[in-house]
């Protein structure tokens, strides 16, 4: 998925509270268009100005459930990525992925599409012809550590993820490990990503890694984390040091658990690039624009075949130098 804003920027939002010695920081989403001003809208909780990352998770979009009956639905033209992994997860509907490696994959609910950009890749995402009436899901990015950020790009689809089921609900482990279940999806830093489905009026209690920081993104109404209410589309940052997580459903509820070892490297995140310096990002932008205009299949980002429209042009770089930033804002 692309950040299609013409002037990509971070935003101040959220607040911090504590209860019984635990940290709770609410990250409220800002609304941005996906694929153009007439396209569907998504809520973005990461990055924000004060809390930019949770572990290596550096970007989180939530959308739906959106009524796309008779509408184009998701239409994201070919666009580039560097230095990250994209994680596509659906709760309802379907999305067709194409990339410059030649991958073409229809992702459905319960399946993980994982694309590692590494040194450079381009891809498109769209609701297929004859798509269903509802689209509901999340798009996440994982930052690659410095010594792995230029790995060769690759694509994975995982349709047989580990699922833990109890009377209180079920847990699907997308990436990493949780409660003894481990995904086969490739990771580059210690992290976890899981879909929590909570039965009405029940509470899921999950063991979690104490050295990880964690956050929960509500993808339905009726989610409570440690009895803290969490509105649909909002994320609750939980800090680190806990060994158990409690998530309750007021009715049948869904939430995403994200966590990982705090990512201590400073990053430059601009448009669809994750780098370490202004010059690195500027070079990626220049190479994308050259390859896009020339439709160069041998360029850094290659060419996506099969999408019925032009590739996305990169926004202009700002007039000031892009600065590397840490996972959280330092007090001024």
From TrEMBL:
Gene3D superfamilies cross-referenced by the UniProt entry: Jelly Rolls (2.60.120.10)
Pirin N-terminal domain mapped to chain residues: 45-142
Cofactor-binding details, from the entry: Binds 1 Fe cation per subunit.
UniProt lineage: Bacteria, Bacillati, Actinomycetota, Actinomycetes, Pseudonocardiales
UniProt name for this protein: Pirin
Positions bound to Fe cation: 79, 81, 123, 125
Domain Pirin C-terminal, first and last residues per copy: 194-293
Keywords associated with the record: Iron, Metal-binding
Database matches in InterPro entries: Pirin, Pirin_C_dom, Pirin_N_dom, RmlC-like_jellyroll, RmlC_Cupin_sf
One Gene Ontology term of the molecular function aspect: metal ion binding
Domain of life: Bacteria
Cofactor(s) the protein requires to work: Fe cation
Similarity field: Belongs to the pirin family.
């Amino acid at each position: 998925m692309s950040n299609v804003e013409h002037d990509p920027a971070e935003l101040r939002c959220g607040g911090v509270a504590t209860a019984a010695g635990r940290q709770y920081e609410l990250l409220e989403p800002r609304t941005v268009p996906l694929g153009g001003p007439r396209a569907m809208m998504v809520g973005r909780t990461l990055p924000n100005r004060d809390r930019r990352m949770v572990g290596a998770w550096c970007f989180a979009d939530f959308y739906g459930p959106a009524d796309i009956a008779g509408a184009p639905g998701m239409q994201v033209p070919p666009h580039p990525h560097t230095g990250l992994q994209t994680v596509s997860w659906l709760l309802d509907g379907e999305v067709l992925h194409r990339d410059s490696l030649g991958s073409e994959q229809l992702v459905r609910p319960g399946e993980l599409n994982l694309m590692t950009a590494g040194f450079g890749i381009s891809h498109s995402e769209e609701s297929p012809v004859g798509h269903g009436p509802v689209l509901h899901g999340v798009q996440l990015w994982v930052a690659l550590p410095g010594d792995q950020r230029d790995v060769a790009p690759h694509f994975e689809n995982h349709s047989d993820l580990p699922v833990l089921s109890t009377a209180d609900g079920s847990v699907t482990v997308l990436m990493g490990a949780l409660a003894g279940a481990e995904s086969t999806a490739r990771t580059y830093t210690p992290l976890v990503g899981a879909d929590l489905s909570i039965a009405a009026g029940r509470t899921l209690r999950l063991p979690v890694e104490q050295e990880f920081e964690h956050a929960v993104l509500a993808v339905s109404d009726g989610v409570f984390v440690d009895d803290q209410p969490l509105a649909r589309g909002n994320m609750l940052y939980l800090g680190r040091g806990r060994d158990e997580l409690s998530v309750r459903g007021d009715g049948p509820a869904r939430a995403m658990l994200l966590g990982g070892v705090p990512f201590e490297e400073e990053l430059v995140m601009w448009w669809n690039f994750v780098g370490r310096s202004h010059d690195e990002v500027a070079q990626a932008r220049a190479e994308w624009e050259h390859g896009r205009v020339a439709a160069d299949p041998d360029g850094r980002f290659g060419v996506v075949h099969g999408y019925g429209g032009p590739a996305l042009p990169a926004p202009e770089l700002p007039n000031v130098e892009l600065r590397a930033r840490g996972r959280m804002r330092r007090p001024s």
